[in-house]
Amino acid sequence: MEYSVNKIFDKETYKPQISIVGRRNVGKSTLLNKLIEQEYFKVSENPGTTINPIEKEYELIPFGPVILVDTAGIEEEGELGDKKLSQTIKILSKSDLIVVVLDARYRLHPKEIELFANIDKLNIDCIVAVNKIEYGTNPILLNELRDLRITHFEISCKENVGIDELKRKIIRFLPKDDKYFLIKDLISKGSHIIIVIPEKRKIPKPRIFRNHLQILTEALENESIITLCREDEFQKTLDEINVKPDLIIADCDGIKKIIGNLPSDVKITTFNLILSRYKSDLKIYLNGIRKLEHLQNGDRIIITELCIDHPYDDEIAGDKIPLLMEQYLNKKLNYLLTVEDKLPDDLSDIKLIVQCNCCSKNRETVRHLLNQAILLDIPIVNYSLLAAYLKGVLPRVIEPFINVKKEWDKLNLTII
Q: What is the pTM of this model?
């Protein structure tokens, strides 16, 4: 039987967001109306008709349901480098695909160049549509796009030229779910996996279902051999199987004890790091680890709890993480606790964002926060990677993730 990771993690089917961005009066709303073949988005010759983002759910054949977003002109806002959560940053951060609309008559505006630079920071596909070609295309614009190595589509919303080709390109660029795995890419047929369960601490049933069941499902589908044991049975279990396991997965709180009795060539990681890798990008979090080493007394840190089923003053967010950080750094820091993804609009004095493990959130929610941090140039790290570093079990617990381990080696950090 085949199982979908998203069916277990997400309460409803995720609809990719396609954001149409650009300067005022370049034809964003008109393009959207052409794509959906309806007069849904308001169109006017007066610049600035669209003030706030407008969303519409649409069945994009043959892909399926998507969310189309019409946006205000990018020249309405301040610099993206101001470290303020502008509408542009919020829209870009949530997007699965970005369509930038340009006016064929004009060369690139500084705001458009800035927009391209910021999109380039994100792992999000971008399509550039040069509209209004019925008036001719400015050769300087074409040279500028060529210099930036930007491939573009020439369209005319007025004369309905290039719209069908653009729609086909949008469908091809939309994300597919089949490239994300929990452990499937870490193991092979017949791999021996030991899953270690905490011996005393009670784990909520929903968390067992999400974390352990899907990992077990992928392992079984891969025809792996699975051994399940408690932390206090681990050494006995290891001795009895009398074979080197290909992978050990343990709880973060007890992993240091397990590593202490484990040969250095055995791969081991935690449930939370597996989930973090699936839902986000551990390489980005490593930059947060690097920033940790440069924090000073009084620096402001945001600790954000995205899972609304956790209390605002959760023990991990309110006590455990701050205590671990201050014990390690021997410095006094200032903390701001936030819930869900509601960051303050002004983040100019924030030195680091510490994010929860998002055990009840999907990949898209986590990516939204990550992208905001990237665009604002604020380092970010999550609980599991931060705790592993502060407890001295990095890089051991990321060795199963080859690309993440390579990024760690570049940091040249020393574990105390």
A: 0.85
For 282-411, CATH gives: 3.40.50.11410
Ranges of the chain with pLDDT below 50: 1-11, 80-81, 204, 311-315
Burial call 186-195: b when 16+ CB within 10 Å, e when fewer: bbeeebbbbb
The domain spans of the chain are 13-178, 192-266, 282-411
- The sheet that has 334-339: what strands, in order across it? 334-339, 300-305, 350-355, 380-382
**Which residues touch 380 (CB under 8 Å, ≥6 apart)?**
284, 285, 287, 288, 352, 353, 354, 355, 369, 370, 373
* pLDDT tens per residue, range 185-234: 999 999 999 999 887 655 545 555 566 788 888 888 889 999 999 898 99
Amino acid at the residue 235? Q
Q: DSSP assignment, residue 156? A: B
Q: Which residue has the tokens 């308001």?
A: 42
Contacts of 7 (CB under 8 A, 6+ apart): none
Q: Where are the alpha helices (DSSP H) in 261-401?
A: 271-279, 282-292, 315, 321-329, 363-375, 383-390
Phi, psi (5° rounding) for residue 346? -105, 115
Question: Quick check: 336 and 328 in contact, CB under 8 A?
Answer: no
CATH topology of domain 192-266: Rossmann fold (3.40.50)
| Rounded Cα–Cα distance for residues 214 and 217 (Å) | 5
- Given this structure, which CATH class describes domain 13-178? alpha beta
Is residue 342 helix, strand or coil? coil
Amino acid occupying residue 84: K
